[in-house]
Amino acid sequence: MKKKKKKRNSKAKIILKKILLALIPLLLISAVILTAVLLIFRVRNISVENGAKLNYSVQEIVSAAHSAEGKNLLKLDTEKLADDIERALPKIENIAIKKKYPDTVIVTAKNSKNVFAVQTASEAFALLTGSLRVTDIAGKIPESAILIKGAGKSAALSPGDVLSSNAETSSAVITETAKAIKASKFSKINLVNIEKKDNIYLIYDGRILIKIGNADNIGKKISLAKKSINKENELSPSQYGVLDVSDTPKAVFAPKNYNDIPELEEYDEEIKDCIGEEEKEENTGTKTDAGKEETTVNAA
């Protein structure tokens, strides 16, 4: 019995040894493949599409994407990289990152537009994109920008920041209002006043006061306001008045004279010295790149 047991143990050891010997080449091959992947799929080049048309040079955009340099392309977090670039270079937005194997990252972007503005503690204005990212701090606001009143005068805002993460109060209301205006493509809005959370109002085209009321269903209220104003404009495109959408889905428009709408007078008095000329689109891209769809810079 002992001899048979020894034979079985000996056979088991031989089988185990053969298995281990067979696994060693597989492990070595796997290690070689993994090493090759790590080396081959390493980011060495960063390309910028239509770089000459953007507000920053190709080199500035590549520098902002430096965190990708040397990283494995397979594991690269493209969303984080896009956010890093937009934070560093806020005058471009809608940034998308494409992976081009084996070793290239392609950056696409559009020039930012100053959609909103808020006053800072220094009495200057923080200019914001539609996503509420600060592009610049300026003494005046572009005529097309929407002034947000009631956001709190923050001294900490600087280019690259997002307003919702810096405003002391009402950040959720600001964010929802901005999203609703952007989603509905509601143009000619001059002012968003959120100083009183139960009495939010907008000013449209310097002539119509839009009463929102509280922030409940603010997206629906703004969408309803746009539809109502479009109808009113078909009848009388220069009519002053008050549009009440606070009791959505009901919208009530009351024609009024300018002097009968104190909010319009207050806005005009407050803003008259703050409006500047429209900013011209910057273009610091190299002219020699103008005809190229993509400019590549070696990042290694």
Question: Could you please describe the fold and organization of this structure?
Answer:
The protein has two domains: 45-112, membrane protein fhac (Ubiquitin-like (UB roll)); 116-276, Rossmann fold (3-Layer(aba) Sandwich). It contains six helices and 15 strands. The chain has helices spanning 2-40, 58-64, 78-88, 171-184, 218-235, 262-271; strands at residues 45-49, 92-100, 104-111, 116-119, 125-128, 134-138, 141-142, 146-149, 189-193, 200-204, 208-213, 241-244, 252-255, 275-276, 294-298. Mean pLDDT is 83; it is low at 165-169 and 279-292.
Provide a compact summary of the structure.
The protein is an alpha/beta fold and 300 residues long. Helix 4 (171-184) crosses helix 5 (218-235).
Keywords:
single chain, 300 residues, alpha/beta, Ubiquitin-like (UB roll), Rossmann fold, 2 domains, nine-stranded mixed sheet, elongated
Describe the secondary-structure layout.
Blueprint: H1 2-40, E1 45-49, H2 58-64, H3 78-88, E2 92-100, E3 104-111, E4 116-119, E5 125-128, E6 134-138, E7 141-142, E8 146-149, H4 171-184, E9 189-193, E10 200-204, E11 208-213, H5 218-235, E12 241-244, E13 252-255, H6 262-271, E14 275-276, E15 294-298
Parallel strand pairs: 1-3, 4-8, 7-14, 8-9, 11-12
Antiparallel strand pairs: 1-15, 2-3, 4-5, 5-6, 9-10, 10-11, 12-13
Helix pairs in contact: 4-5
